[in-house]
Amino acid sequence: xxxxxxxxxxxxxxxxxxxxxxxxxxxxxxxxxxxxxxxxxxxxxxxxxxxxxxxxxxxxxxxxxxxxxxxxxxxxxxxxxxxxxxxxxxxxxxxxxxxxxxxxxxxxxxxxxxxxxxxxxxxxxxxxxxxxxxxxxxxxxxxxxxxxxxxxxxxxxxxxxxxxxxxxxxxxxxxxxxxxxxxxxxxxxxxxxxxxxxxxxxxxxxxxxxxxxxxxxxxxxxxxxxxxxxxxxxxxxxxxxxxxxxxxxxxxxxxxxxxxxxxxxxxxxxxxxxxxxxxxxxxxxxxxxxxxxxxxxxxxxxxxxxxxxxxxxxxxxxxxxxxxxxxxxxxxxxxxxxxxxxxxxxxxxxxxxxxxxxxxxxxxxxxxxxxxxxxxxxxxxxxxxxxxxxxxxxxxxxxxxxxxxxxxxxxxxxxxxxxxxxxxxxxxxxxxxxxxxxxxxxxxxxxxxxxxxxxxxxxxxxxxxxxxxxxxxxxxxxxx
Length: 480
Prior knowledge:
By secondary structure, the protein is of the alpha+beta class. It folds into two domains: 34-177 and 211-337 and 381-477, no CATH class; 343-377, no CATH class. 31% of the residues lie in helices and 25% in strands. The chain contains ten helices and 21 strands. The chain has an eight-stranded mixed sheet with strand order 6-5-4-1-7-12-13-14. A four-stranded mixed sheet has the order 16-17-18-20, covered by helices on one side. A hairpin with a 4-residue loop joins strand 12 and strand 13 (232-239). It is globular. The chain starts with a helix and ends with a helix. The model is unreliable at 1-28 (pLDDT under 50).
């Protein structure tokens, strides 16, 4: 009997040793790369809801097309990364933090390894207070759980996979919307100053146009995942286009149309998840103001035109991908403190006078609307924390910035990044308004006007750029 017992223990130990040795994450043995994706519906159940994206509040009474959190989880055997790109205009950090916390509890993925972003569709429910649209409390309470559910479901679908990346080009759908203007052709800003040298969306062939005030980024960057037998599983794209519009709320805008179109072009299985993230598009739209106005279009038509154009560029890039069966994953985050451009006591007093003389509950003029923003900004702290993130997927770098980032900033990050290629996902992990460069602040214009949509210090962008480049250096130096 003692001999048999010893044999049993030896056999059991051998089985246990074999099991531990075969685990992908143990002792660096045979790591299997895995991926999982899921499309989580985040359309509100109760209508009407307020909609972000305008100077005045709008109510959505119907659903043109449903809204989603499109989720992707990657696992290299030691490190897991999670992405969730949500059909929303902008999402405050506290909502994203709660979604991460909930998802981390159920998956074990560290919150530092999760990237959640908004697409910036202007036809989604308000979850951040901007101008005269205030958050819908019921939807705000529901959204973190819905986003977390999408990440959890993507994690549950992890399977052996291949991964690759490439960069396409589509210069036909991006134009800088800020134009330098001849002296005397810009109106006073909402605060009564005549200092603006640029105008946002000046109109087709408007009087006084000189040239665009900044560059555009035509890159269509893609991260693609296949099953081990070569079937498309997910595709995360990045394009620096603000949004398209021309559709009634609720709608995912061209971001949703792209997801549908790339699935059609790739002839994918039903489970495929197409994702379009917003790049550095704070000063970019798809309107060419140097040319004549286009012919009138039906609702949603322009969204489909843009989505097809960008999807074709993504398809061309996809066909060039050298898919790999294993790559290294890593992530790094850092919170920095930036100053807030708070109004002075005199500016607040003047703003209150303007509001006292306003007629009706709905503010009509820019001075009235910005007076309200001034009063609300007076309650902001002198500094705010800003969360920045960098991820590495093999040789690909991904940066996350919680702002509407100007194109020239994204181009600088791409140029200076130690990982090639690199792209930036804007409106990620929080919302801290527009991010112009100091030079663009000097030119003025809508994106620089102080409001809850633009309040960071003038020197915010160089500080953010330095930080994300350091984070990219960190993740680039890590290896499994």
